[in-house]
Amino acid sequence: MEGTEGLSFNPSVPPPSPLLSYWDGIQDIQVRCSTEHLVRPDVRSHPRIALFCVSCRLDKIRRLCGVNSMLPIFSKPLIEVEASDVLDLIREQHPETDLVEFKEALPCKKGQDNWYSGSDSIGEYARNQLVAEIIAFANAHGGHLLLGVAESHDHPSRAIGTKYVPRCVDLAERLKLQIRDCVEPTIPIVGVRAIEMNGAGDGIVLVRVLQSRVAPHRLRANKECYFRHADRTETMTMRDIQDLTIQRSAAGQHLDKVLADRDLRFQEWIRASSTTNRVSVGCRVSLVPTADIYVQHVYRNHAVLPYLHHFDIEFGSESKLEGQIPSTVHDERPIVRGTRRMDSSQQPSVIQEVHCSGLVEICFRESKEDAKLYDSWILGVFCNGILMADSFRKAAGAPDVEYALEFQVAATTTTVPITSIGRFRQFALLGTPPSSPCLYPRLSLGDFSREHKSLIEIAMTDIWNSCSMPFSKKITMVSWRT
Fold first, then answer.
1. Of the candidates 176, 190, 184, 254, which has an alpha carbon nearest to the alpha carbon of residue 216?
2. Rounded Cα–Cα distance for residues 356 and 101 (Å)
3. What are the Cα distances from residue 191, in Å, to 138, 209, 309?
4. Does residue 258 come out as left (phi exceeding 0), alpha (psi in the -120 to 50 range) or beta?
5. Residue 228 and residue 278 in one domain
6. What gap in Å lies between CA 89 and CA 366, rounded to an integer?
7. What CA–CA distance (Å, rounded) separates 179 from 3?
8. Residue 60 shares a structural domain with residue 76
9. What residues pair up with 159 in beta bridges, in sequence order?
């Protein structure tokens, strides 16, 4: 591992309590660490340990501690998780952590929940226990709840087998409704998937929860808030709730600050190419993850920075629009904790940028005497931006992380002329937004496969409406090509 020379984990120690070894200049020192206290305070000040803590991301530390956060069941899009991924989890004997909770069966005070005897509803006790776990993940760092996985009796407990839940598909649907109805305020993104294991409808229910940007959440039944600490779910105190409220409010302000900074940078870049005889126009899309994700190596990593695509957007059989950026980017250079790709190193008209923290951005500009923007160019920037964000979160092993999306058009004049390209390459002035720069309402990117068409429709509606033109077409298909 980079930056950790002289550090190793003893492979003979079982995953729940690994040994971290380091050389103190005289002898080899070993300290035991758990998923709750990854490095003990009494050794954290040692130079090599300090370097280790700073240079390694949390997911790397967890993997070294026996917590494999990159197992397919955690890193795949939820819709793609299958039975073999559950078996991989058990084969690894994955432990419970601050991000993973196992339940052998629906919780019940005595005996079994009525679901096992054919009832079509989940018992109140089971409902409250499961929803409390989900609230704890949403209030903390997100996580996964697996219902139907047998666990060991050591600490932390590990996945050692399966105890299939009957009618798992129906149970997943009931659980979705309970999560929606029993949590205040509603958790923005929760995925629930039933994984049939035996062909008879029995299987596992997997719940994937993202860190919530609108936390704290509480259980409506008892008005309690919960938080995930290591492998435990605990009730939050009033002080905990106050601290979390301040923390999430600060996170929202940080996102606003990041996007405001991207706005200023873009406007400066537009003005830099303007001269007495040339007008500059341009557009930008910036996407920022609303939860912590990280990819250490992004330079020349095509998994996080794909090349620009052409998008074919169809509105039934009658109409079609091509979203494209009229330039080819090929000059890639590293930047501080990120990478940038341009079409020219002197006066680039396109900049494609990715940061290790997950921020992705595309900026485009055109500079000439009668410069104008085409709606297909704006859509090319927009569509490539959401594709980049989706590529990054998949590469980071967090395919469901939500992104905040901001896009705008700008010019060095007071207005931005936007031209539309018709079906037979006919060009017509669409109009001009009322001001420059024109910053469109912020959007949210969730599930790419389900939301990309609606997002593009909203963007097109906003562009046309800003030019005082109606837009009512429905997108039937979106395809892309390099």
1. 184
2. 29
3. 12, 7, 29
4. alpha
5. no
6. 51
7. 43
8. no
9. 151
Residues recorded for the chain: 482
Task: State the Cα–Cα distance between residues 300 and 304, nearest whole angstrom.
Answer: 9
Structure tokens at 44: 């954290």
> If DSSP codes are grouped into helix, strand and coil, which group holds residue 39?
coil
Q: What is the pTM of this model?
A: 0.74
Q: First-to-last CA distance in the chain?
A: 35
Question: pLDDT digit string (tens) for 281-324?
Answer: 999 999 999 888 899 999 999 999 999 999 989 887 767 888 88
- 391 and 336 in one domain? yes
Q: How far apart are CA 441 and CA 469, in angstroms?
A: 17
Question: Mean pLDDT across the stretch 412-423?
Answer: 78
311 and 276 together in one domain:
yes
Are 60 and 7 spatial neighbours (Cβ–Cβ below 8 Å)? no
Helix (H) / strand (E) element for 203: namely strand 203-209
- Give me the CATH number covering residue 102: 3.30.950.30
- The answer to whether the beta carbons of residues 446 and 412 sit under 8 Å apart is no
| Domain count for the chain | 3
Query: Are 320 and 249 within 8 A, CB to CB?
Result: no
Summary mean pLDDT of the chain: 84
Residue 125: phi, psi to the nearest 5? Answer: -65, -45
Same-domain status, 368 and 397: yes
In a domain, 229, yes or no: yes
Whether the upstream peptide bond of residue 18 has omega within 30° of 0, thus cis, is: no
Residue of 153, 3, 57, 151 lying closest to 397 (CA atoms): 57
